Amino acid sequence: MIQTAFNSSKNVDLILFMIEATSKEIGKGDSLILEKIKEANKKAILVINKIDLVKKESLLHLIDIYSKEYNFDAVIPISATNTDKNEILLQEIEKCLPEGPKYYDEETYTDQTIKMLVEEIIREKALKFLDDEVPHGIYVETQKVKKGKTMDNKPIFNIEATIYCERESHKGIIIGKKGSKLKQIGTYSREEIEKILGEKVNLQTWVKVRENWQDDDSIVKKFKIED
Questions:
Q1: Among 13, 92, 5, 89, which Cα is nearest to 49's?
Q2: pLDDT tens-place string over residues 4-30
Q3: Which residues fall within 8 angstroms of residue 196, CB to CB, at 6 or more apart?
Q4: What is the pLDDT of residues 157-182, one digit of tens each?
């Protein structure tokens, strides 16, 4: 992953380099990244995270030592506890990016199919709500996406999807006590899918075990993983 990031840096329009505000000096790992940024010689934004954990003097010192190493187009301090700076970061990113050709209409949200969106959203919710070791061993398949009508003749998408995991013990974790965890994943997934589709959604999810699925090329190719 790291090598892929380094190789890609030569062909990008902008590099975002994130460091932690709690750093006192430029560490070995960050020095290596800085060298790669210098080699790429691209526009770059320095993003300093966790600024709520340090005093202003420490933050200014960090900005000073990094600014001496590279001519960053912007330095943006941020914090997960205060998202006010996020909009500033997005604005700075937009400033640094060149205007490109218009490949899609302005109203086009994505070029993915509904099935693909459903699978990504459910897996993302699993990453959010499950124990760390479980989500990386799961994948999602959408079996059904069918548009219909509700009892009061309003449009609704009927969607069925299965969450596959590698172990029986993981199945229990995903389902949770009396189905609570699966219900949580399903509820938040349905709400996000409804926002994207702009229609009501009836989402049904199941959990099944498929051991060693990561050795199945036909499944792994769905994630577009390359060596």
A1: 89
A2: 888 888 889 999 999 999 998 999 999
A3: 109, 117
A4: 999 999 998 888 889 999 999 999 99
85 and 148 part of one domain:
no
SS3 content of the chain, % helix, strand, coil (to 5): 50, 25, 30
How buried is residue 122: exposed, middle or buried, by Cβ count under 10 Å (0-12/13-18/19+)?
Answer: buried
Contact 126, 144 (CB under 8 A): no
Report yes or no: 63 and 75 within 8 Å, Cβ to Cβ. Answer: yes
Element of type H or E holding 148: strand 138-149
Q: Provide the CATH number for the domain around residue 10.
A: 3.40.50.300
Which pairing describes strands 138-149 and 155-165: parallel, antiparallel, or unpaired?
A: antiparallel
Query: What value does the mean pLDDT of the chain take?
Result: 87
Parent domain of 77? 2-96
Q: Which helix (H) or strand (E) holds 31?
A: helix 28-40
Spatial CA neighbour of 13 closest among 71, 85, 96: 96
